[in-house]
């Protein structure tokens, strides 16, 4: 079975550099890295955009995934996404952004197509650069900051020790969600994963 409709562009949102690697804001990078390992792709610097890219297929002859980690900072993520969407001729409906979400409890995953950005700078930049909000989002719940901590500081801090106990499982589950969106579609995936 070949993939007639062309590749999917899966964007892991995060900030480049080792100092950000374990931040809540970088969970998109974590999911993209796991997906690259699953499809046998390796991230390498892309010449056409400020991004690291890995490519591979989901299963034998399955859909092609182009996995992208922007090397710009979060608020400039849209440029590399738009450049690669154009190069690979990927329409917005086949672009999946994986990102952290303050408005969802830690450990919950939500899938939606289009809608607002909820104050997320990476999504805002993507919508602006793509000229549309009609792409798929896999929202990884990180919950609200405790007490009076500033949300901006909270997203740029590392997951807590308690959260890290579950993190690997949750990143794995988020990668499953992305695969399901690609192979089954948004609505069936919502039905499957929105139970919890």
Automatic annotation (TrEMBL):
Enzyme class, first EC level, given as a word: hydrolase
HAMAP family: Pept_tRNA_hydro_bact (MF_00083)
Localization (cell): Cytoplasm
Name used for this protein in its record: Peptidyl-tRNA hydrolase
Chemical reaction(s) catalysed: an N-acyl-L-alpha-aminoacyl-tRNA + H2O = an N-acyl-L-amino acid + a tRNA + H(+)
UniProt: tRNA binding residues: 20, 73, 75, 121
NCBIfam families in UniProt: pth
Site (Stabilizes the basic form of H active site to accept a proton) location in chain: 100
Molecular function via GO: peptidyl-tRNA hydrolase activity; tRNA binding
Gene this protein is translated from: pth
UniProt-listed GO biological process terms: protein quality control for misfolded or incompletely synthesized proteins; rescue of stalled ribosome
The protein's role, per its UniProt record: Catalyzes the release of premature peptidyl moieties from peptidyl-tRNA molecules trapped in stalled 50S ribosomal subunits, and thus maintains levels of free tRNAs and 50S ribosomes. Hydrolyzes ribosome-free peptidyl-tRNAs (with 1 or more amino acids incorporated), which drop off the ribosome during protein synthesis, or as a result of ribosome stalling.
Keywords: Cytoplasm, Hydrolase, RNA-binding, tRNA-binding
UniProt keyword Hydrolase present: yes
Positions annotated as active site in the UniProt record: 25 (proton acceptor)
EC number, as in UniProt: 3.1.1.29
Organism of derivation: Micromonospora yangpuensis
GO cellular component term of the entry, any: cytoplasm
Pfam families in the record: Pept_tRNA_hydro (PF01195)
